Give the backbone structure.
Amino acid sequence: MARATEPERRLLVVYTGGTIGMRSEGGVLVPGRGLTSVLKTLHIFHDEEYARARGLSEDTLVLPPASPDQRIIYTVLECQPLFDSSDMTITEWLQIAQTIEKHYTQYQGFVIIHGTDTMAFAASVLSFILENLQKPIILTGAQVPIHTLWNDGRENLLGALLMAGQYIIPEVCLFFQNQLFRGNRTTKVDSRKFAAFCSPNLPPLATVGVDVTINRDLVRKASREGQLVVHRGVERDVGLLTFYPGIPASLVRAFLQPPLKGLVVETFGSGNGPTKPDLLQELRAAVERGVVIVNCTHCLQGAVTSDYASGAAMAGAGIIPGFDMTSEAALAKLSYVLGQPGLSLDDRKEMLTKDLRGEVTLPVADERRSSLQCGTMGHRVAWLLGLSGRQEADAIQDVLMPSLAQAVAHTGDLATLQALVELGHDLSLEGSSGQTPLHVAARRGHTEVVTMLLRRGVDVNTHNEDGHSPLMLAVKGRHRGVIGLLRAAGACLSPQELEDAGTELCRLAHRADSEGLRAWWQAGADLEQPGYDGRSALCIAEAAGNAEVVALLKNLQGGVGALQPQ
Ligand SMILES: NC(=O)C[C@H](N)C(=O)O
């Protein structure tokens, strides 16, 4: 997760309706058009002078500068019709996803203005149908219309714009009341308070106060493996049924009739349901007919377990545990998984037990995580220092982990590095001297480790305290395999490194160091860049009468080197 540094960031705002833009008609609130005009009258949302100077179109607004060297420019797309979100369905959410797909390359982030009533459903659905996100998608809205004097809409929308504009958080998120949540972890918990949402089983990804605090360990890494995929296949015949004490088996049977293909049941406590044989029989019969049932707890916090016989009975009937998923996320996941073409029923059931978009905390991983933590590093460190508490052990791990990750990257020990990932450690953390594992692996020329780190989405252009990027360190080590990997992942030499290249190239030409020259060329250096005395590497080689280096430089400058094997 990185902070965006471009001087201008472009966002697309999709306005779908909701209270934020509502007006009163006949004493009730209805969706209102013309949100852009309202925003244009508010100085915090639009800098008219800048927009005019830049020749921006009517529907394009620009925020006042959030930092001296960056502007957030945004275009508002007003949907037709606008909705009270109680009327939104999967059809509208698919349309939003397709709008994002259509404009994906033009904008660096997306803000979806949505009614709050079904925003958690919308965020959950979008999180599944948008796969391989590299850019932030942030839903927001309000409890009170933005044009009224005392409202939460301004703060929420401004926050969503700033988060999407300034940070690269490649997830579907929900911003409300100074908190950025993972969208598929949210639920609406209050119909009146400004703090309308919570994320019961996952801390916020970011919190805005005097400072913006990003919970970097939680933010999912952008996928480098694939392009954005917008899934169109979703199953609409899915439902949600809350169990209550004494619910009759006949009602459950009626609910489970065709065309229903999937059901989320909200059970009691840690996933417990009535154990009446007739009710269990209805559930079992539906599962045998191929209906997929997922168990979620109706409690706000906690997870489905099989600690109780009444919980184990649910699993015994073939119901899939939803662990700590919200019902909104479970319903969206069910719709997505059942809508995927070409999968067997077993494949679908297996997919439902996996963590697809950070929507669930899997207990197995948890157990493994804690046993690994307690059983190995954390426990040993705690023991060594005479500490027994998990908290202290965790704190020590936080301090040691960056150095440990660097030491492992230094030796090129891929398996241990992978184990650190499984323990949940962030491999992009900087250790001493601002060094990341990528710097270390690049300096040492460990191609496998570099490949793994890049797949995990670590920042490729980060600089250590000496101002060196991983690419620069790979060049210094003449590790051409690593240079190739870093370049393919978007690494470039910084303006300073490019400027310094001239003198270094001359030095290499003087020493007839062909490998060094090739490494610089491969990293993108301009071979004609003059050294400190104004002469280029070619002049130096010619003056020294070194025909081989002269030929090499001419070839590389002419692009012939590109065809040569590395
Ligand atoms: N606060 C809101 O946005 C509620 C409204 N009924 C909606 O969901 O569209």
